[in-house]
# Entry
Amino acid sequence: MIYLGEQLDALNKFKPLVTCWFNIKRLGNARKGDVNGYQCVDKNCRICNSKIEKLNNTVIDYTDYLNFICPYLNRIIECKPNEIISLQDEIKDEWLKIGLGTEDHLKEKSKHVFTVKGYKEWFTNGSINYSLAEWLDKHTCVYCNRQYIFTTRKIGEKRGVTCQFDHWFDKGSRPLFALSFYNLIPSCSVCNSSVKSRTHFNTDDYLHPYIDKDISSRFKFSSIPNTATQYGITFLNENKMDAKTKKTLEGLGTKLVYSKHSEKELQDLIDLRMKYSDNYLKNLLENTFKNELYMTKEEKYRLIFGIELSEDNMHKRPFSKFKKDIIDELLRIK
Ligand SMILES: [Zn+2]
Ligand SMILES: [Zn+2]
# Structure
């Protein structure tokens, strides 16, 4: 997993968009002629100038719900991951206290507003996901560092290719946080839809890419011989690994998603180390650019192995963490 950093610039760009969207849903759109509708002070606001309309109340009335949630909106958007559960409890207690309905009503209404209308119809279909991905600027999946998650689109077009956003606290059980900034993790489709979805994450038992700065250095990949010529992928000193890191790697299925790379990237590196009589791996690093211009260690690793060495840049190339750990291990073997 890769640490996402503070991302305050991205948060400051994201927050007004959600605020305008929510208030138009609640009050209507003043710039579309709604008499008591909402508009913000920004004349060029892309949300207030869009076609977004007031939430339709034909079957169930959402007015009380939206007015109830409004004072909590800022906190819902920028709530830190380790404060999400207590904020949800606080909102639920107040909801029950003033008698607006049961806990299930709160959950159902949150699901309709934040997950269906907010996350699916507005955030994803409205291309807000492209903007957030561009602001966060992470190039590979935060969970696996195996796949590129670039955002690209043709000039003037809203859509192209981008990452998926995983809800670290799953939006099924906590729909109020479907649009919360620190709950939206840029990831690949494999990590988002197949592997992580089976586990309910919480900050007591799992590492979080917005909290744990040392997230990628808390474990190391390692190779393990299966036969004389075939190797598998495991973690170094797995039995000594702390419980939180272990649970996180299990929850993300890291070993599983990397397992087939034992026949590809791992085998290539092992061949460089083992197939030739000399330590070819060491030779490559020490002698390839020997007589050329001065080259940093980072540049050598990028040119020879296609990876980034520093933790800050690791997200820019797939397999950076994996290959670095394996190369370190292979260089240690005498
Ligand atoms: Zn606005
Ligand atoms: Zn992934």
User: Anything to note?
Assistant: The mean pLDDT is 94. Residues 20, 40, 42, 45, 47-48 surround zinc ion (ligand 1) (CB under 6 Å).
